[in-house]
Amino acid sequence: MEDKEEFLKEFGDYYGYPNGPKTIDEIRSSEFKRLKDTVYLDHAGATLYSELQMEAIFKDLTTSVYGNPHSQSDSSSATSDIVREARQQVLDYCNASPKEYKCIFTSGATAAVKLIGENFPWSCQSTFMYTMENHNSVLGIREYALNQGAAAFAVDIEEAVDQYGASRSSLTSFKVIQHPVQRRNEAEVLEGDLTGDACNLFAFPSECNFSGFRFSLDLVNTVKQNAEKILGGSPYSRGHWMVLIDAAKGSATHPPDLSLYPADFVVISFYKLFGYPTGLGALIIRNDAAKLLKKTYFSGGTVAASIADIDFVRRRESIEELFEDGTISFLSIASIHHGFKIFDTLTTSAMCWHTMSLAMFVKKKLLALRHENGAGVCTLYGNRALKIPCHDSGSIVSFNLKRPDGSWFGYKEVEKLASLSGIQLRTGCFCNPGACAKYLGLSHSDLLSNLEAGHVCWDDNDVINGKPTGAVRVSFGYMSTYEDAKKFIDFIRSSFVLMPSEFEKGYLLGAKSIPYPNEGIENRLSSSGFYLKSITIYPIKSCAGFSVKSWPLSTTGLKYDRQWLLKSSNGEILTQKKVPEMSLINTFININQQILSVESPCCKGKLQIKLDSDSHLRGKEEFYLHNQRYSKTLWWCPTFCQPNEVSAQSCHIWR
After folding, report:
1. Are 145 and 122 in contact (CB under 8 A)?
2. pTM for the predicted model, two decimal places
3. What is the pLDDT of residues 304-338, one digit of tens each?
4. Which of 176, 195, 496, 605 is the most exposed place for a label (fewest CB within 10 A)?
5. What is the DSSP string of 194-229?
């Protein structure tokens, strides 16, 4: 209780909806009973729906008749009215005048971004400029731009901040650092030939889904009015600039005010706002920008008339009808009304303060953690001021953890241990490769080297060549509590912080780890009800392991565990996902003789590798790759034959 009193002393004015109709404790007990034994901290990935919200939706759908809005029946007309009201709710949420903007429903934020990219009026004189911190869905626009001969480049935006860490609002407060220009058809246009007639697009997120950093929406007016100035007179700054805001994450607590920041395109995702429905997003588009888009495809609902056997089609003039292909997800659209009720009741400003206070609390606690030798435990990404108010900090905390010797804990280790502790979080790069590389300090060479080593999105390769390939992310929602944040901090402290009293059997022991005494282990474990039955060692990744009752530890875990991998002759890293037969390869380590034995039912011989000298009974080749020494053993084995091949294919064992 003392900890919470200390928290409320600092954040009580912002936490828990002190002026709302319900306190945070009342919201959790009445609307999120399913979270009793779960700490959910992935609201940036998908926030949670309220149980009362779903009850209202179910009642609505079971007491109303909604027909296809493309029909003329009474039920269809009722559906059209609901859709019309929903469009207005979306516009109101972003303070967008219906005289200037329209709301186009899509299958998600990604579909909304894709709609812009494929219909934008690209030319060889156009420019696509985007911040490094962008979701892959936004980076995908680059394909449309480059294929049409346009130039594309990333930029870093540096904002001047005041003494309190808040961004300044002025046209001169931005410094734009331009990355190299990309162009696929160099011969089509020279820089000196660029004119001011082309349409250009600038894209940025209102809140970075990797770091939680909030970009100043003043960028909208700055780019639209002063692109040449902030780009230093670059020829790529000429032309008519339009601005896209990816508000999929940021709009959950801080929707853009389009009356002040008149962006041309804003994309949002409803499951990131209030949990349900999934598979529904919206594109808020300026009327004058919509007129510039060049739509090719037509479908049901988008045409006024078409003739099947001749080249004739007349499209509808309504912006929404023109771009909404096929029947919209009208039942999902009908349900967003109940989600917006929550926002109207609590208010987005109160939700913003609430989630920000939890994020600030966690950041402070993480930065304060120290190992017994005084070394810091946590490295935060995108961290600026740790005071409220801080207008450029959202509800995300992104970080990695270090051991006492400065080496990194793998983020997958954090994720798996968190899951065992009932804590749901996210790890990786979060589909934001630019932010990931920027904050982790990964060069192009690092990224390509990681790819060569077999690392792809969502795999378990969390540390390569001593550097993390991603991060741990926790994010808070409007229903998150102090108790959620406290349990998370306690988990980090007990699992990853080395305390002096526990430094008996290696620094992997945390403050609450079970000690491993030399004597009386059977009695101590049996009295607790837990005992260690066996340990399985997997020397070669994706191959069969062997079980033992005891095994030595190293500074990275079980000794010799997953120290080797198999690589095909063409350089591909082999896994069971690619070659299921790898499960038939048996391994065993004789710890006394220091020999690793490898055998397969498809091979006549047994490969033996001496561990102490890293030598083996067959030929060895050593080479260096990215300043790392590798030992390679050539092993001919038909286990790795492709289905259409007759002869065996060689593979290499890498340590």
Report:
1. yes
2. 0.77
3. 999 999 999 999 999 999 999 999 999 999 999 99
4. 195
5. --S-SEEEEEEESB-TTT-BBPPTHHHHHHHHHHHH
